[in-house]
Amino acid sequence: MKKNGVNMIKISAKNVDVFYGKKQALFNINLDIEENQVTALIGPSGCGKSTFLRCLNRMNDVIDICKVQGEIVINDFNINDKGCDVVRLREKIGMVFQKPNPFPKTLYENISYGPSIHGMAQSKQEMDEIVEISLKKAALWEEVKDRLHEPGTGLSGGQQQRLCIARAISVQPEVILMDEPCSALDPIATAQIEELIDELKKEHTIIIVTHSMAQAARVSQRTGFFHLGELIEHGLTDKIFKNPDNTKTQDYITGRFG
Amino acid sequence: MSEAPHTVKSYEEELKNLNSNIVKMGGFCEEALVKATQAIISRNSDNAETVIKNDEKIDKFETLVEQQVVNLIALRQPMAIDLRETVTALKISSDLERIGDLAKNISKRTLLLNENLPKNLIDALVRVSSNVQKQLKSILDAYLDRSSAMAVNVWEGDEYIDDLTNLCMQEVIKYLKENEKNLDDGTHLLFVTKNIERIGDHTTNIAEQIYYLVTGEYLEGDRPKGTEPVVTGEK
Ligand SMILES: Nc1ncnc2c1ncn2[C@@H]1O[C@H](COP(=O)(O)OP(=O)(O)OP(=O)(O)O)[C@@H](O)[C@H]1O
Ligand SMILES: [Mg+2]
After folding, report:
1. Interface ipTM
2. pTM of the shown model
3. Residue ranges per domain, chain A?
4. A47 lines ligand 1 (CB under 6 A)
5. Is residue A107 within 8 Å of A167, Cβ to Cβ?
6. Domain boundaries, chain B
7. Does pLDDT of B129 surpass 80?
8. Nearest CA to ligand 1 atom 6
């Protein structure tokens, strides 16, 4: 949504520090994520992109030694507060991983699982609709509509990844986090996912981690560059790729690193 | 270019190579203008012919640069400073190619001029040309040094070139009006003057490109303009 031509802030990370045991992985991250925009997170391996992404739906909770400090404000609510309902949070903040990870169940069940645990459908018919709409939005419906009751693992890699995206959007999340969603895909499947991302941003806020500079440039409106656990520079994608302010950013995106 | 080299050495080489082709091409253009001017002063047809012949070299460089740019874009997908290097190289090479053409045109006309032209005309012409030469030299230095300040200097200097051009035009028009026999030479001289001024304009274009290359921003504001051009026809 826009107010006076300016995008609303959907997520605001404030002074976020993350530690794995004694080792600090993120240092004082401050980043505003705009609503209905695609934000790309880039940076060399190990710089903390995935760690940051996991802060946004408290996925770091499942890592014992991981400690997160600072605030992550989503819809004016700090999700690091004790009172945060993590199950509700993950319903609102969906995630798609690097490797497609469908459940070892049918296509239909892969998608209906989320909506059913969240009690989103009152009848079989309603559930059918959710499954169909989700698959359509993920641009997979036409390819699989006749085999909904076959196992999801029987799809190709690109189809599996779109299935995972369909699964993520089935619960109508406000935000979708994607951690290198195309790294295992061919250029055509990649293009389909990128087209999908473009489409999804009308209704969702998207944050994508990618190692492909070209992909970041293609799909995102905003880009953040991480290096050694710090957010070095963030801003309009256009600016970052044509004329970044920071030399480290420039060295990274032009392939002059290390 | 950035301080740090690219991790992929061949990419680094390709960008350096592109850069050095622009510098070489610029050198040929400088030489063309110097020789074309000398040909006017000393009525040396060898010089004029060299300029005409060497224009082919400049054209070849333009094609070469164009191919290199297309390859870089297709195969390396340059970003940020590298993208600006690549795109500005293409634009600068097309301005340099035009400069080469204009110098050739000047030389072709010089070959047709009569031996004894009034000294004041030659002086006025040489004054424009030597100032354009200075501009061209500065802009090639600005490219080598990646200096936006030098580029701005050249850009602003174009106003003076326009003024000198107008003064020269007035001299030529006076000469034209003096005697009907002056018609052929006078017309050639008008074109020669105009062509030298156009070389100055292309130099200014290059200044804009260098400014963008270095800063990532466009030179703002109107282009510098000298006095209004003289009206040639009588009303
Ligand atoms: N579960 C963990 N236990 C301990 N250290 C971890 C854990 N996960 C990540 N780290 C460390 O935190 C730092 C950031 O890792 P992270 O996975 O966020 O990087 P990344 O930017 O996503 O890298 P990549 O591009 O390779 O996926 C690294 O130094 C990593 O070794
Ligand atoms: Mg990662």
Report:
1. 0.75
2. 0.84
3. 102-173
4. yes
5. no
6. 9-227
7. yes
8. A20
